[in-house]
Amino acid sequence: MNKIIALLRNEWTKVLRRKIIYLVVGLIVLSIFSMGVIYKLTRTIPNYTAEDFSIVKQNLEFDLEKTNSEIKRYEDLLGENSSVNSTEPSESYHNLNKALEQSKHYKLSLEIALDKEINLFNYGYQTDLINEMAALYLMKELAVEENNSQRISELEQKIVHLDQILNQNNYARYIDYQIENVKKNPLLNDQQKAVRISDWELELIINPKGHAFYPTKNYFNNLMYVRDTSMEAISKNYVDYSPLLPSELSQAKKDFQIANFYLARSHDNLPEIDSGGNVYPGFAVTFGTYGMIFLIIILAGSTISQEISTGSIKGLIIAPVRRQKIFYAKLINIISVSIIGMLIVFLATLASSYLFIESFFHLPYAFITGSSLQVMPFSFYILALCLAKTSSVIMAGLFALMFSSTTRSTSISVGVSMITQFGLMAIYNFFKLVLGQSYTLMSFLPFEYLDLTKHILPPIYGVTSESSFMFGYTLLNSDFALATPSFAPYLYWLVMAICLIWIARDSFVKRDL
Amino acid sequence: MAKEIFLSVKNLHKFFGHKEVIHDLSFDLYSGEVLGFVGPNGAGKSTTIKLIMGFLSLDHGEIIICGKNHQTEYEAAMQHIGGIVENPEMYFNLSGRVNLEMYRRLHPGVKKSRVDEVIELLKMQNRANDKVKRYSLGMKQRMCIAQALLHEPKVLILDEPTNGLDPSGIRELRDLLIYLAHKEGVAVLVSSHQLAEIQKMCDRVIIIDQGRLIDNQPINQMMKQSEDNLTLFKFVDAQNKKRALQLLQDSPFYKPSEFDQYSLVLAIEENQIPEVIFRLSQAHIALTTVQPHYTNLEDIYLSITKGGKVIE
Prior knowledge:
The complex is a heterodimer.
Chain A: H1 2-16, H2 19-42, H3 53-84, H4 91-116, H5 125-146, H6 149-168, H7 171-184, H8 190-206, H9 217-236, E1 238-239, E2 242-243, H10 246-264, H11 279-303, H12 305-310, H13 314-318, H14 323-356, E3 365-369, E4 372-376, H15 378-407, H16 410-435, H17 439-442, H18 453-456, H19 465-470, H20 478-481, H21 488-510
Antiparallel strand pairs in A: 1-2, 3-4
Chain B: E1 5-16, E2 19-30, E3 34-38, H1 45-53, E4 60-65, E5 68-69, H2 74-78, E6 81-84, H3 96-105, H4 113-121, H5 137-149, E7 155-159, H6 167-184, E8 187-191, H7 195-201, E9 204-209, E10 212-218, H8 219-224, E11 230-235, H9 238-248, E12 263-267, H10 273-282, E13 287-292, H11 297-305
Parallel strand pairs in B: 3-8, 3-9, 6-7, 7-8
Antiparallel strand pairs in B: 1-2, 1-4, 4-5, 9-10, 11-12, 11-13
Helix pairs in contact in B: 3-5, 4-5
């Protein structure tokens, strides 16, 4: 053991005297910070307020004129159509009727917008209100035709109510109005109603002015998407017309809990800028991981071959140490460099995140153990992410070590390892993205389990930066169909690692020098 | 000092593919002796040394180092060995001192101060902190010798140790090896093509060729066998030398030792010289020089290997 420690110290002495180590690690750290600086410098505060009415007035008037002529054309066509065949309405008659209704609705919306001097194209809550008012006017016309006075009265009340909200430009009242609608909706059960109501209440907190766009819109929409799809899957026990497997159902329940956790946590300190800040830490760690893979390939790819080719291995062979100890020291060295390198990536990512990213996006990592939800603070999550990513760095190192030991050529071992890691992996990831649904079949390909990150820290779509940047997994789709047992990825990784170590060790220990 | 066997090589065989490069090689190396290991290029010297140093695996045979079996007690056996194999190589981007320090760590019990001692012994104090890549061949050789001596091994194996050394360096190394062997009791195996150096420093010489042992005897004995009175006769031209050869080849004092284009070496007593001169003059063979001729290891080596070819 003492000799292995002595050998390991020697390996570290050699590592620390190599300029390439400082160069690559320095570049990785610099790049992580640079990305943070660029991100901070280039982000601009978007104009969340709608364009002024005066700018769009002409467009609205033009649209109104055009819509009026369309309505006239549809009415003429409908007249011709009904005179040709009055017994049974044709499909084109239905389509024309539908188009006419839509045009009438749009015409009413335009008229209200022009009357109230509101930009209809801002897609904020005012647009929703105008559209809803237009629909109510159309319903009222129908009620008038039917001579349904009670319905007319109800609709008029609603129109007046919406008109007041619109005149006051009161977003809070709009939210109240929507909550009331949810409560009265007979198609929703109590749980669904509670979810919808909490969503509207949250909307008021995160977007108090009712802008069409706001900094955390994507973040919250993604969370709601995960929650809704998982809730639907749990309640129907189906997803995409396929019954859920027990493991999928369990995953859906976990996702539901996790999404709810993020939605329910305090939303103070909301960012002013739609920055995509949740993407940055994961991107920085992913970039750092690729940098470390590059470094470890150079290091592991030369560790045996270069020493043999330069003859410097002689000093080790002459020493009273068995060759397998020399090999294991080199192996431990590669693993320790991988871990320490990723710890440096962690520190750089953490520091740059605190320096350049809004504190709102220092998101904790929620996960389920057993049936209870656990939460990992942001810094721990970044650390865990880096350590999980170390699995791919170590695997790249083992590949390079194996090639270095078997070929005894630094150029071949480094070259082949680089092509494998950066060429074939890129092609593999490209096909994974392109094939979409067929991706499940690719789960059986060896590349899938060389990086254990997503198995150690399962991503939730749009929440953790890890998931949203690279591949954007949608949990309730492709990942679900051919779920492997949870130990399979670890077993695969372990078997692969042992095989590579065994080949490298055998080649180094048993072959003549 | 009683001589102990520090290194015992028994019935060594080594194949590269189907070719047997070492054939049934056996020899012993005793404490306090310097053993010369010579042979033509490709004779198997470096292969034998690599087998002893653990670079190559044995196909058959046994190596015992200070009583420890090389195969079953590898680390214990290698603890007693220091050496250089082929060219002097170290980690070129590290300083000589760091290289020695790294080597020291692999030998438990060797103090840090020993690094300075060997640096001083090999006169490398001024360059020890420079990177090895800035060293000349001679400096690398010195540093590798320092490394080989670092843990005070009982067996020192040096493959071409004088490579790159200047004349004074060669002399210092020779003196050092003789001192280590004769005063410290170290067993030293030196492989070299510098036969004059081998002759000066070694107590015993082994000659191998094509992986086989050709000769193994103390240098004194080897030289004694060749201590007949030899006389060199130099002629005016090759034609005269050729005629002299025809005249004398059947005589008892003709010795097929070294002769060049104009010379012959004859094993004759001093009082026989006039007779030979008389016979040559009668045959009108013109001489330029007659002088005593002293044999060296090179002569013996060449006569044994017939200029590199093994005597069957």
